[in-house]
């Protein structure tokens, strides 16, 4: 083999090894950077610059202390909210924010988003296939409202269709006949498939077969 061909072969191998390494390290790197950003953001909620150095509060300047304190605060609030009396106080404060002009639009929007993902009123737990643009074209989506007759659309349902590689999406009002529930696909798997542009595999949960009565 000529030196020129050997150089080409070596360059091709190095390029292949580079992309193989990139496929391994890129997801790890992006995940690590995301976690680090979340950690730093939460940790910096407490303004360390204004804390005096000559008091016990100086320990709050240490990296990670603010992060732990914020987590403890969230846990404590969650624990207190389970108390009947304290939950009534939170409910009163919640009602006040929902009635305050301008603030109510921000508060209710953020609250509804969090409720949709982690609250008791989860909205993205009903994955479906929906026909939006054509008879033979199906989109992955999630039913957010089973009935939208209050909008003057009888027999329609609201379906949220997430965008690939983004945290955005669109809501479509479609006839119930154009929606196919995915009863054997977990909501998390459906969301991952839609957001990844369909490149990830879906772990389908098979329904247990019913035993025939003897």
Automatic annotation (TrEMBL):
UniProt keyword annotation of Magnesium present: no
Transmembrane annotation, as ranges: 21-39, 59-80
Keyword Transmembrane helix attached: yes
Keywords: Membrane, Transmembrane, Transmembrane helix
One Pfam short name: DUF502
Domain of life: Bacteria
Protein name per its UniProtKB record: DUF502 domain-containing protein
Organism for this UniProt entry: Chitinophaga rhizophila
